[in-house]
Automatic annotation (TrEMBL), chain A:
Name of the protein in question: Pimeloyl-CoA dehydrogenase small subunit
CDD domains linked: ACAD
Pfam (any one): Acyl-CoA_dh_1
Acyl-CoA oxidase/dehydrogenase middle domain span: 122-214
Domain Acyl-CoA dehydrogenase/oxidase C-terminal: 237-370
Domain Acyl-CoA dehydrogenase/oxidase N-terminal intervals: 7-118
Swiss-Prot/TrEMBL keywords: FAD, Flavoprotein, Oxidoreductase
Cofactor(s) of this protein: FAD
InterPro entries cross-referenced by the UniProt entry: Acyl-CoA_Oxase/DH_mid-dom, Acyl-CoA_Oxase/DH_mid-dom_sf, AcylCo_DH-like_C, AcylCo_DH/oxidase_C, AcylCoA_DH/ox_N, AcylCoA_DH/ox_N_sf, AcylCoA_DH/oxidase_NM_dom_sf
Family note: Belongs to the acyl-CoA dehydrogenase family.
Automatic annotation (TrEMBL), chain B:
Family named by the database record: Belongs to the acyl-CoA dehydrogenase family.
One Pfam family named in its UniProt record: Acyl-CoA_dh_N
Organism: Colwellia hornerae
Cofactor requirement: FAD
Alphabetical UniProt keywords: FAD, Flavoprotein, Oxidoreductase
A GO term, aspect molecular function: oxidoreductase activity, acting on the CH-CH group of donors
Acyl-CoA oxidase/dehydrogenase middle domain span: 125-219
Domain Acyl-CoA dehydrogenase/oxidase N-terminal stretches: 6-119
Gene Ontology CC terms, in alphabetical order: plasma membrane
Protein name, UniProt field: Pimeloyl-CoA dehydrogenase large subunit
Length: 373, 399
């Protein structure tokens, strides 16, 4: 057993960490959020240049290895800066699906462009009625003279507004809730039959609701009617990514709160001198440490099992959700009113820690899945 | 012991129901039910309706236009209002400064201020907290120095809720010798905000709203007739006010209604082929909060019953704020959970009356995270829950 990072991994961690520290401070992030696109194209090219967009892919696919531990390392650092660039939507989810389910022609077409930072993508899977059930797909793909057309709505599609190409989960056969009968399609996001309403989420990430109306596709991705295993797989991978992000964000939330309690004075002494708050800070610390541990467990187990271990992943999401909840709430409470201001990063960490709890399956959903597996 | 309403109380309940049915504007009720914020105009409209009915000053003495209601009547009114979507009145005038004025003010002050507060002609805000004085309120540093028949006020108040809409601010200021002991140098001053020497700057909170402000006083001149009571007694007056603030602070009626609506929402919210309420874990979480709320309701009723039989409220009353806010926040969290993915979009523009774009998700869902974020304040303001806990451990448990 050895939990130390390899020299390559150490290098990645150092370089992402340096980027967050030097080029992604809170004010810079604020400017990025206020910009027209809501993320920085310049950063995106920088990610490509440094090879970070190659990280989720195997060497065979032209990437840099793509282990879960690698992903964990990058995302934990991203979490510290609350990075809003669409790394998960484009590289982890969309690129991941293509790597997993695509044929050689598709891989050759899309993956190099993703890794070069030239293509923005989004994976449209959730629907207004589906909640977290990935098999619940109403959006239909109907075959007409050998060509499929898609109709239906997709909800809160991450990066959906800025994507050039979408991957859409659509029903090609069976009933809304059937596990079989789901297929993946490439869709030109700019096709006139695609209506997109974009917005920022409360955590600053860009998303869109998307409506398809007899929209032609750019081709089937993977096996017809049998896309659910790949979807499950890739949502699990994305879940690991946000778990790592949460661990990074929790660390900063705890650091900031600890610093604050050492300087803020009330009743003539620092508030950190009140034992009532000391214990609360220790609880936050324990939650963060437990979260970090279970994240490592999940990443290692997934890596030793070909990239998927649903039970380990759900354990991590459940436990990290619980930690994120406590750490986020306490960070605000212990700051007092100032913690509720838009001006301070603590509130934004709290918001990201909140959405992470409800993204890709809530804490309860993953607890149940863990119990069932 | 008796749990039932008397015949008169039942009549009163019907009267309230009928009033709400006839007089509560539908738009205001709908917004309140959806936990959306009301505009200043809407708040005025509602309070003026209450005033016309003689029901604006619920806790006020009758001679100043109060209702003279018994605790049971207040309980009935709060519950019927919550059920019908009758919004809470803005507390700063009616519930916070008015009790100080009618208890400690002189006749001239009562005549000058109380009628406009009752009629919602004048808006007030609360100028207690300062950047350096939060939980330790007695350390306020804003000064009021007497010069002839005026005070010259300098300093900064912060977290001033709705200060941008207020005409007047009631402040804790420091008068007298700087060397005086903290609490003995504090005075209670009413200040007209229509003064170029007072500037109000917005503070945006994590829900993206402008609700709180920083208020700067730069040699603002305030007539000495605006001082309440005596110099140096402000702390005592403020404490009385804080106990008024505690009335209804548990917000049981509103939480009850929010839970009823949450359950209705869970019954219709799809969860794949099922409904959310069929999810045993979710249903259990809702039940747990509901059970906690039942206990709190009876804690509040014990307090009310003590007051109505002429006794002082017992130690149970001190937990109202802590438990009440925990429950508010737990309910908010369940709404976020119920909303699922649609808790995430930040689309506040679609809650506006004149919005005509494409709405994203149901309002109840897209408003849920904002509400959850905003209500983090509930355990911070009005004496944080940590401070409340300290008070209980000292004053109730004698630790
Ligand atoms: C949305 C909002 C609206 C507000 N509106 C108004 C308003 O209209 N007018 C107004 O005057 N004020 C208002 N306030 C201010 C509010 O009253 C203060 O935030 C509150 O008193 C706490 O002070 P603080 O924020 O400075 O936190 P601090 O006092 O700095 O406290 C920071 C943390 O330390 C804890 N703490 C402090 N002392 C102790 C102790 N002895 N033991 C254990 N823990 C302790 C606190 O509980 C808190 O968790 C508002 C606040 C908010 C968030």
């Amino acid at each position: 057993m050895d939990f130390s990072l390899s020299s390559e991994q150490q290098m990645i961690q150092d370089s992402v960490s340096k980027f967050i520290l030097n080029d992604y401070d809170f004010d810079t992030r604020r400017k990025i959020l206020a910009s027209a696109t809501g993320f920085s194209q310049e950063n995106w090219h920088f990610f490509a240049e440094l090879g970070w967009l190659m990280l989720p892919f195997t060497e065979e696919d032209g990437g840099l290895g793509g282990s879960m531990v690698d992903l964990m390392i990058v995302m934990e650092e991203f979490g510290k800066g609350m990075v809003v660039e669409p790394f998960i939507a484009t590289a982890v989810m969309s690129g991941g699906l293509i790597a997993l389910a695509g044929n050689q022609v598709q891989k050759d077409d899309y993956l190099p462009r993703i890794m070069a930072g030239e293509l923005q993508m989004a994976f449209a899977y959730a629907e207004p009625q589906s909640r977290y059930q990935l098999n619940n797909v109403k959006c239909s793909a109907i075959e007409n003279k050998g060509e499929f057309v898609i109709s239906g709505q997709k909800s809160v599609v991450l990066n959906g507004h800025h994507a050039d190409t979408l991957i859409v989960a659509a029903r090609t056969s069976g009933q809304t809730n059937d596990h079989n009968g789901i297929s993946l399609f490439f869709v030109d996001a700019n096709h006139p039959s695609v209506k997109r309403t974009g917005y920022a989420n409360v955590d600053g990430h860009q998303a869109a609701d998307i409506w398809f109306d007899n929209t032609p596709t750019l081709g089937l991705l993977g096996e017809q009617d049998n896309a659910l295993p790949a979807i499950d797989n890739i949502i699990d991978k994305a879940t690991l990514a946000i778990c790592a992000e949460a661990v990074g964000a929790m660390q900063i939330a705890h650091d900031r709160t600890l610093e604050y309690t050492k300087t803020r004075k009330q009743f003539g002494r620092t508030i950190g001198s009140f034992q009532a708050l000391q214990h609360r800070l220790v609880n936050m610390f324990i939650e963060h440490q437990q979260a970090k541990s279970i994240l490592l467990m999940a990443a290692l187990k997934m890596d030793s099992n070909n990239g998927h271990d649903a039970k380990a992943l759900s354990a991590a999401k459940s436990r990290i959700g619980k930690a994120a909840n406590l750490v986020g709430r306490e960070a605000i409470q212990i700051h007092g009113a100032i913690g509720m201001t838009d001006e301070l990063d603590v509130g934004h960490l709290f918001k990201r820690l909140t959405t992470i709890q409800f993204l890709f399956g809530s804490t309860d959903v993953h607890t149940k899945r863990f119990a069932a597996l | 012991m008796n749990l039932n309403f008397t015949a008169q109380e039942k009549d009163f309940q019907q009267e309230v129901q009928q009033f709400l049915q006839e007089k509560l504007p539908k738009g205001i009720a709908e917004k309140t039910k959806n936990a959306l914020h009301l505009s200043k105009d809407e708040c005025n409209v509602w309070q003026k309706i209450l005033h016309k009915q003689g029901w604006a000053g619920i806790n006020w003495p009758i001679e100043h236009g109060g209702t003279g209601w018994t605790p049971t009547q207040k309980y009935i009114f709060a519950n019927e209002c919550a059920k019908a979507g009758g919004p809470d009145v803005i507390p700063f005038g009616l519930k916070m400064v008015a009790p100080v004025i009618y208890t400690f003010g002189n006749d001239e002050q009562k005549q000058r201020f109380l009628p406009d507060i009752l009629a919602s002609n004048v808006w007030w805000c609360q100028g207690y907290s300062e950047p350096g004085a939060g939980s330790d309120l007695a350390s306020v540093r804003t000064t009021a120095v007497k010069e002839g028949d005026e005070y010259v006020v300098n300093g900064t108040k912060t977290w001033t809720t709705l200060g941008q809409h207020a005409d007047w601010i009631f402040c804790l200021v420091r008068t007298g010798e700087p060397s005086a002991k903290n609490q003995e140098a504090i005075s209670f001053l009413l200040i007209n905000m229509n003064d170029p020497k007072i500037t109000v700057s917005p503070i945006i909170t994590i829900d993206g709203r402008h609700e709180v402000n920083e208020v700067h006083f730069d040699n603002a001149r305030v007539p000495t007739v605006n001082l309440i009571g005596e110099e140096g007694k402000g702390w005592t007056y403020a404490k009385v006010l804080l106990t008024h603030e505690r009335t209804g602070i548990a917000r049981v009626a509103i939480s009850k209604d929010r839970l009823v609506q949450l359950k209705a929402l869970a019954q219709t919210s799809p969860d794949g082929d099922n409904k959310l309420i069929d999810d045993a874990i979710f249903a259990q979480k809702v039940a747990q909060v509901e059970i906690d709320l039942l206990a709190l309701e009876y804690t509040e009723l014990r307090t009310l019953s003590a007051i109505s039989t002429g006794q002082a409220p017992g130690p149970e009353s001190s937990i109202l704020k802590i438990v009440g806010t925990q429950i508010i926040q737990a309910i908010d969290e369940l709404y976020v959970e119920a909303a699922g993915y649609y808790s995430m979009p930040f689309v506040p523009q679609q809650f506006h009356d004149d919005f005509d774009g494409q709405s994203i998700g149901p309002d109840m869902a897209t408003n849920s995270a904002l509400r959850y974020f905003n209500n983090r304040k509930a355990s911070i303001y009005g004496g944080s829950n940590e401070i409340q806990t300290n008070i209980i451990s000292k004053a109730v448990l004698g630790l």
